[in-house]
Amino acid sequence: MEYVNPLTGFRVDGRRPNEMRQLKAEVGVVARADGSALFEMGNTRVIAAVYGPREVQNKGQQVNSKEALVRCEYRMADFSTGDRRRKPKGDRRSTEISLVIRQTMEASILTHLMPHSQIDIFVQVLQADGGTRSACINAATLALADAGIPMRDIVTSCSSGYLCSTPLLDLNYIEDSAGGPDVTVGILAKMDKVTLLQMDAKLPMDTFETVMELAIEGCKAIANYIREVLLENTKRLECQRG
Amino acid sequence: MEHQQRWRPTVNEREFIERALQSDLRVDGRRPFDFRRLKILFGREDGSAEVQLGDTRVMGYATAQLVQPYKDRPNEGSLAIFTEFSPMADPAFEPGRPGESAIELGRVIDRGLRESRAVDMESLCVVAGKHVWSIRVDLHILDNGGNLIDAANIAALAALSTFRRPECTVGGEDGQQVTIHDPEVRDPLPLTIHHLPIAVTFAYFGEGNIMVIDPTYKEEAVMGGRMTATINSNGDVCAIQKAGGEGVMSSVIMQCLRIASVKAADITSKIKNEVSTYTSAKALQKVKRLPATVPQKDNVPDVAMKESTDGALERQSTKASSDVRQISKEPLSIVKDNKQEDVEPMSTECNPEVKSKPRFTVGEPDETQGAISPKSLKDAVKPKHKRKKKQHNKN
C-alpha cells in the first residue's frame, strides 16, 4: 500500500509528511478532579484526571517517604477502537503504557516538594487513532498543570515513523499498523532533553536519527500549543477572580 | 500499579556509588562501557540455554506447538515470549501475577525479536490457515544481579538459535493431513533466524551526564534513568525503550546507539561461537559409536550421511516399488529383532560407497544397488522404511 503519494507527496489522510494532525486541548473537564484535561490529536481523543497531592492510601506502596508517590493508570475505552469488545483490565500493553507514562511524568514532577503524599494520574482513551500514548502524556501534562502540581518542565510527546522511505510525523492508525518503524519521543520542552523514547521495527541508525529529530520537532510544536492553552486558561481564571 | 519493594541503598552507599562514577569508577571495578562476563550454557535438550551475566542468571527455553494461525496472518507462525520472575531471584518479585517490570521486560524483548522480524515466521507455516508452528520462549529469572533485560534477551536468542522443531510433512487423501516425524526418524529442523537483535542497556546518573553500560543491581538502585537499545550487528536499530526517568540530550542518545552497535557485534559473535560449539558437539554425540574393530567410521560425517541415504531410499521406494514390496512382505518380527544389528552394518559397509559415489542418481537406483553389496543395503532399508510406512498408516 502507498502511504505517501509518489506524485503529490501527500499522506493517506491528506497531510504532508512533516505535518501534524490538528491539536485541540481543553482544561478542567472533570469537576471532581484536582486537575483534568482533554487532549485531541486528530481523531485520537484522550481524557486525563489528576488527584493529589493527597495522603498516601496504601502505605505499603510508598518507596521513599521523602518524595511523592506517583501512580498512573492508562485505560482504553471499549468503544475507542474499530472493533468494539471488552478489553481485559491490566493486559500487558496497558500495564506497560501505564508504567511508561508514570515514569515520564515522574521525571518532570518535583516529587521532593511533596513528601508523604501521592499523586494519581488517570488517563482514559476515548477514541484511538494512533499515537495514544503521546496524547496521554500531553493530556497528563495539562492535567498536572491544571492541578497546580509543581513541575520542573512540561513534558510533551509525539510519534514519528518511516514509511515509503519518507520520515512521517504523528502517525495515525493506518500508518501505525503498516508495520513500519514507530518512534515515540517525549521531551522536557525547555531543557530540550529526551525523557521518553520508544521504538520498534528495524531502522538503520542514520535514518533513525532523522526520524527522531522529526519527532522532537513535533514535541516542541506541541509544547508551544500547550503553553498557549495554559496561558489562555490562566487568563480566564484571572478574569473570573475579577 | 503495585510498587515492588526493592533493595534501597543507604545514603552513604548512594553517595559512594555516585561519587565514584564521577571519576569513571564503578563499584565492581569495570570501566563505564564494559560488559560483565558473559557465559552461555546449553541444556541437554535443544532450545534450552542458561545465560550468566555477572551475577545475573536467566534461563531461556524454547518450545513449539502446532496451532491454528491468527485470522489476519494465515500463513505465518507465531512467536511469544513469557517471563517468569520467581521470588527466588529477588525478594522484590512477588509470586503470582507478573509485575510491571516483568511485563516491561517481556514486551521489550518481544518487540526486539518480533517487530524486527528476526525469526522467519513464514517458514513456520505448515498448511496455510490450518496449521502453523507457534514458538514459545520461556524466560526464567534465576538470579537478579542487575540488567535483566540484556541477560534475558541473550538467553532468548541462544535458546532460539539452538532450538529444533520436529519435521513434518503434509499428506493424506485430501493433502491436509500433517504428519509430525519423530526426531529419531528425521532430523529436526532449526529456525530461520535472519539476524540477532542484541539488547544493550545504559544507565544514566546525575542529570544524565554520566552513563554506564550493563548496570549492576546496586547501580540500578541508584540510577536516574535507563535506556535499552536493541541493535543487531549490522547497526540497524531494532527497538529502543527509554521509559521516562532522567532526560538526556538527543546527541547523547545517538552516542549511546553507536556504542551499543559495537557491543552488539561483540555479543553476536560470542553467541554465534557458543551456538556453533554446541551444535557441533551435539552432532558428534549423534555419531553412532561402533566397535573399535571398524576403522572407517572416523571420517564419516554422520548427519550428511543419513540424509543422503534417506533421500536415496525414498527415491528407490518410488522407482523400484517391486523391491520395496518384497521387503515389506518380510515378517515384522525379524525386522524388529534385527533392527539394531541391521542399522549398524549399513553405516559401516555402505557408507564408504555412498561417500565415494557422491549421490544415487534417480535413473539408476537398481544398478547401484546391484553393484554395491545389495543384501546389506536392502537390509538396511527395512527398518526405516517400515517405520515410516507404519506411521502413515496410523494417521
TrEMBL record, chain A:
InterPro entries documented for this protein: ExoRNase_PH_dom1, ExoRNase_PH_dom2, ExoRNase_PH_dom2_sf, PNPase/RNase_PH_dom_sf, Ribosomal_Su5_D2-typ_SF, RNase_PH
GO molecular function, one term: RNA binding
CDD domains: RNase_PH_RRP41
GO terms classed as biological process: nuclear mRNA surveillance; poly(A)-dependent snoRNA 3'-end processing; rRNA catabolic process; U4 snRNA 3'-end processing
Domain called Exoribonuclease phosphorolytic: residue spans: 19-150, 153-218
Domain of life per record: Eukaryota
Sorted UniProt keywords: Cytoplasm, Exosome
GO cellular component: cytoplasmic exosome (RNase complex); nuclear exosome (RNase complex); nucleolus
Main localisation: cytoplasm
Compartments reported by the entry: Cytoplasm; Nucleus, Nucleolus
Family: Belongs to the RNase PH family.
PANTHER family listed in its UniProt record: EXOSOME COMPLEX COMPONENT, EXOSOME COMPLEX COMPONENT RRP41
Name assigned to this protein: Uncharacterized protein
TrEMBL record, chain B:
Taxonomic lineage of the native organism: Eukaryota, Viridiplantae, Streptophyta, Embryophyta, Tracheophyta
Keyword Protein transport belongs to the record: no
Annotated protein name in UniProt: Protein ECERIFERUM 7
Region of interest called Disordered, as start-end residue ranges on this chain: 293-395
Key words, A-Z: Cytoplasm, Nucleus, RNA-binding
GO annotation terms (biological process): exonucleolytic trimming to generate mature 3'-end of 5.8S rRNA from tricistronic rRNA transcript (SSU-rRNA, 5.8S rRNA, LSU-rRNA); nuclear mRNA surveillance; nuclear polyadenylation-dependent rRNA catabolic process; rRNA catabolic process; TRAMP-dependent tRNA surveillance pathway; U1 snRNA 3'-end processing; U4 snRNA 3'-end processing; U5 snRNA 3'-end processing
A cellular-component GO term for this protein: nuclear exosome (RNase complex)
Domain of life: Eukaryota
Biased composition annotated in UniProt, kind: Basic residues: 383-395
Species annotation: Leersia perrieri
